[in-house]
Here is the input.
Amino acid sequence: MNVTINDSCIGCGACESICDAVFHVEDKAEVTTSGIAGNEECVKEAATACPVSAIEIA
Here is the structure.
């Protein structure tokens, strides 16, 4: 699973609150790639919950 954050991110923190093993928010969300394995379901949930659809999964 490849997870990226596009430029529409507003840094709201929703992804981090859903899946803090993968997402960290300062000004903009960042992905901790080492945390993806085993957390695929919460990554998908965070992508669905993102208010600006900034999380891209490939």
